[in-house]
Every structure is written in structure tokens, then in C-alpha cells.
Amino acid sequence: MNAFVHQEPAPCEVERIVERTQRHAVDGSGGRVIWHTLGQGRPLVLLHGGHGTWLHWIRNIHALAESRMVCVPDLPGYGESDIPNNASLEELLRSLGNSLDALLGQGADFDLAGFSFGGLVATHLAVAYGGIRRLALLGTAGHAGARRPRAQLLSWRAPEVCSCCCLALRSRCSWPGASMM
């Protein structure tokens, strides 16, 4: 039996957290960016993944807000935030940075975490913004660089698959014990 069972938060739990947050419609100089804040203390900005909204963080917001001011946007072009005039990473960063300045004060120090696509945005924001004290990247995807070449995929069902090397064929396996199997 699996010890971990994923359960979606109950709708009433989500509604309770949404009701406790303060909603801010902030001008990002490329459209409105919608922010939700909860708690007091050192600001912690959480950036959601692609095809998502600030609700990606719904299970974490309440606990983090016990000791922090948690600030969670709908990234520009996502959720309730306006679509930037120019659909580019640079425009998204400009709009997000401007809205952060308006929300927290220009040049404010804060900690930053990004999940998936939000990790990509967080990385670029940390370089461009400069006020980030700590950066946490979770399941970060994409870096806009060249893709690394991938090895040929082999069938895991093939009888000659070496059990020690998952998908490597015995004849290509670098583990010395593979030839003895």
C-alpha cells in the first residue's frame, strides 16, 4: 500500500484561504498584475508554474504566512493578470518587477521561490531585480539554452536489458558485472 496519497484540498479549504488573502491589482506598466498577500514579516514571493495561477501554492500559503508576508501573483498573462503587450520573457519580467516595486516598495528585499516555469522566471528576476536575498527553485523547467543531446531510448521490455542499469543493454552497459549476468 502506498503511504502517500495525493488529495486535492477541499473546496471549502481553498475558499477559506482565498478569503483570508488580500487581493491587489497592481500596474505592471504592461497591464495589471494580480497579487494575493497574507501574513506579516519578511516578504516571500512565490511564483507559480506554467498554465497555472497563484493557486498552485494554495497548500503552502497558510503555513508560510505564520511567519512571513507571503506574496503570490498570477504571473502576467496567467490567471486574472493582464496579458502583456509583447508576449516575451523580457516583458513578463518587466511587468512583474514593476508590480513588485509598487507592491513592496522600490528596491525592497525579499525571498523568492519559483515552481516549474515560475523557477525559470524567478531565476531571471533574481538576476535582473537584485533585491532577492534567498532563491529557491522547485522542479524548475527550461533555461532557454540549447538542449543537451539525449541518449537513444531503449525498450525496458527487451530481454537483454540489464537490471543494474535500468535501460542500458548489457552489451553497452558500463557496469563490469553486467557481462556476468
Distance between the termini: 32 Å
Q: CATH homologous superfamily of the largest domain?
A: Alpha/Beta hydrolase fold, catalytic domain
> Which shape, going by the Cα principal axes?
globular
Helix content: 25-40%
Q: Can you count the beta strands?
A: 6
Order of strands in the sheet with most strands: 1-2-4-3-5-6
Element-by-element helix/strand order: HEEEHEHEHE
Instruction: Compute the CA-based radius of gyration.
Output: 22 Å
The major pleated sheet works out as: 6 strands, mixed
Q: Count helical runs.
A: 4
Low-confidence stretches: 161-181
Which key features would you list for this structure?
Rossmann fold; disordered C terminus; 6-stranded mixed beta sheet; 4 helices; 181 residues; alpha/beta; 20% strand; 2 domains
Describe it.
Helix 2 links the parallel strand 3 and strand 4. The protein has 2 domains: 128 residues, Alpha/Beta hydrolase fold, catalytic domain (Rossmann fold, 3-Layer(aba) Sandwich); 30 residues, no CATH class. The longest helix has 16 residues. Helix content is 25%, strand content 20%. A 6-stranded mixed sheet has the order 1-2-4-3-5-6, sandwiched between helices. With 181 residues, it is an alpha/beta fold. The C terminus is likely disordered. The radius of gyration is 22 Å and the shape is globular. It contains 4 helices and 6 strands. The two termini are 32 Å apart.
